[in-house]
Amino acid sequence: MKDINQIPILEIENLSISFHMYNKGMKKHKLEMIHKLSLTISSGEIVVVVGSSGSGKSLLAHSILGILPQNAEIEGTIKFCGKEMGTLEKENLRGKEISFIPQSVEYLDPLMKIGKQVIGVTKKSEKRKQQEKRKQLFRRYQLEESVAKLYPYQLSGGMARRVLISGAMMRPAKLIIADEPTPGLQKELAMETLKNFRELADSGCAVLLITHDIDLALQVADQIAIFYAGTILEITSVEDFMGEGKSLRHPYSKAFLAALPQKEFQSIEGSQPYAGNLPKGCLFAKRCPNRTEACEGEIEMRSLRGGKVRCIYAE
Predict the structure, then answer these.
(1) Over the stretch 144-184, which tens digit does the pLDDT of each residue have?
(2) Do 174 and 9 form a contact (C-beta atoms < 8 A)?
(3) Buried b vs exposed e over 80-109: b needs ≥16 C-beta within 10 Å?
(4) Cα torsion for 145, 105, 179, 144, to the nearest 10°?
(5) Residue 51 C-beta-side C-alpha neighbours within 13 Å
(6) CA dist 138 to 131, 145, 166, 182, Å?
(7) What gap in Å lies between CA 137 and CA 140, rounded to an integer?
(8) SS3 at position 287
């Protein structure tokens, strides 16, 4: 349950993301990848985003940060601390009040030494303080001090990921967006990273965590947002997502939980629909045993039992 004193940090309403593409013969068309997505993250809260690969989780992160490619088109609103963000606002907030831990280590500048990248641009009067903060983070993430003088090509994949995490933690942010921050890390370091997120959230930060390390994420999360085919089908408390998932609302959420390794990969027939050939109405309908003709109509997100769900038959 949310604290009544929590303040909405990130508010996304009816977000749709499309890309202008060209077919054979140079015929232009628009491919919609994110569809009418709404999500709110408040101060002190960790929202974990889960879903199968290709469901659009990273696109959500990139749209908030304003780093989508030029052929992208965005509809809907994204607000930060109550104010709608345009391109300029996203650029000004990025790396300051909004910190980002990217999925790819290719975000590191290949021509700059690690120490300078982690510290970033800083005033001369704050240089010593920032150096000490960087050293503290290196100790926390088990990076030798000598790493500061290396270039990215000299790092292992796990080291590079820890460098990215350190860089995101350098400055106090109101929102942290972490896109798969733990792959390649030993379990102890992965858990240390998530504990750090929990500490930051407990001090008032909002955290959007995209991850496949669900077992670890459940130990620090407040809410789970279940992605499917470019939208959110359910937002639920972490308590509902644990165990057998009997309190989950959407059929896909239950199927997703049952398909996890610890549940012996109990798969269902079919696959996630392609963005260029989406069904009418419910995007999960063709794989759902409860589907009826009514599922082909407009399906809105609605509140149910303390969570939210995009299903007309959930109860």
Answers:
(1) 999 999 999 999 999 999 999 999 999 889 999 999 999 88
(2) yes
(3) bbeeebeeeebeebbbeebbbbbbebeebe
(4) -10
(5) 29
(6) 11, 7, 7, 16
(7) 5
(8) helix
